[in-house]
Each structure stands twice: as C-alpha cells, then as structure tokens.
Design goal:
Number of helices: 6
Mean pLDDT: 84
Shape: globular
Length: about 150
C-alpha cells in the first residue's frame, strides 16, 4: 500500500470514528464507503486505526500497563437497558479484535480478519468495532486503563 493510500485511509477512518462519536451516521457511511473504494485492504487498516486511537485514549498516550484491563463499556451508548449487545456475536468479535490489536497479538488479529472475510454480514462486525471504540472514547476518562486494575477512577 502506498503512503498516499494509507493517508487517505487514515483520513476516512478518522472521519468514520468522528462521525460515530458525534452520531453522524451519514458521515460514517460515506467514510466507510470511501475506505472500501480505495482498496480491499482498507477496512482492516481503518479498524486498526480505530483501535489504536481508543487504546491511546485509554492509556493517555502512555505505554500500556502490563496488567491493564480494558473495561467494556455499555455498547448501546446508553440506549439499551438490558445490555443484550454485550452478548451479541458481532460485539464478541469486536471485543476479540480490539483485544488482539491492543495486545499486538498479530496471529489472533489475522485469524479474526480471516473470520471477518468469511462472514456474510461482515459490515455488522465492522460497525460493532467502530461502536466499541467510539463508546470507549466517549464513556471513559483518558488514561483509565493504566491503573493497575484498569478501573475507572
């Protein structure tokens, strides 16, 4: 992938995350379509960028504490009282993808991308990851994950 393509993916990935953070679903859709139009490998790169941004937020830009824990926030954005989304297979995949990237487990990341590519409803999984990252940024204080237990203060 050329540096120009990576820069374009980064711009569109940022737009998608900002759109989700601000509830602008048209911006999310347009940005994801733009990423996909650039290259078939664009979406996994965008997903890595979302996760890296959420990890940066969670750690306050510091190196990840060896015993850090990432709290799974309400994935419904506070719109769902029963937390059914937490057990949804799309969100289980999103949490696994987040953990693989956050811990730099390249083998697990590759396996999850292969699983995504075989999934007929892969857009739902991609969106679940975007929601997970955006809600993690919106709903937790910067640097929360670098406490020894990963608990919010």
């Amino acid at each position: 992938m050329t540096p120009d393509i990576l820069d374009a993916i980064a711009r569109h990935a940022s737009d998608a995350l900002l759109g989700q953070l601000h509830g602008d679903h048209q911006l999310v859709l347009d940005a994801l379509n733009s990423v996909h139009a650039l290259t078939t490998y664009g979406i996994p790169v965008a997903m890595q960028m979302w996760i890296d941004t959420a990890v940066h937020h969670a750690t306050g830009g510091e190196p990840l504490h060896p015993h850090a824990g990432f709290e799974i926030v309400d994935l419904s954005g506070g719109q769902n009282d029963d937390h059914a989304l937490v057990n949804d297979r799309r969100y289980r995949w999103a949490r696994a993808a987040f953990a693989a990237r956050a811990t730099q487990n390249e083998q697990q990341w590759a396996a999850l991308i292969a699983e995504l590519n075989a999934e007929p409803h892969c857009n739902d999984h991609i969106y679940a990851l975007l929601v997970l990252c955006a809600n993690g940024i919106n709903d937790t204080p910067t640097g929360y994950a670098n406490t020894p237990t990963g608990q919010q203060t």
